[in-house]
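Re: that backbone. Tokens:
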């Protein structure tokens, strides 16, 4: 199972996956996270407001893969 994790209102770089540095740094709003993976992100929090981070798969969102954050 994989999870397309989406962050609303901001952009981010994937710095590493499972401790392995990413040499192809590009701004994203969604990352495809494989089962058991750990990603290190650098999030550009320049867009104020109340935002969501969630998995794009509806069943996963309903199961709780969703959270809110505020940028002030
Ligand atoms: Cu998911």
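Recovered sequence:
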């Amino acid at each position: 199972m994989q999870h397309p994790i989406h962050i609303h209102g901001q952009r981010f770089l994937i710095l590493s996956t499972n401790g392995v540095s990413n040499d192809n740094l590009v701004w994203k709003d969604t990352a495809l996270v494989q089962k058991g993976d750990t990603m290190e992100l650098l999030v550009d929090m320049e867009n104020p407001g109340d935002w969501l981070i969630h998995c794009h798969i509806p069943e996963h969102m309903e199961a709780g893969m969703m959270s809110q954050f505020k940028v002030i």
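Residues 3, 55, 57, 60, 65 surround copper (II) ion (CB under 6 Å). The first strand starts at residue 2 and ends at 7.
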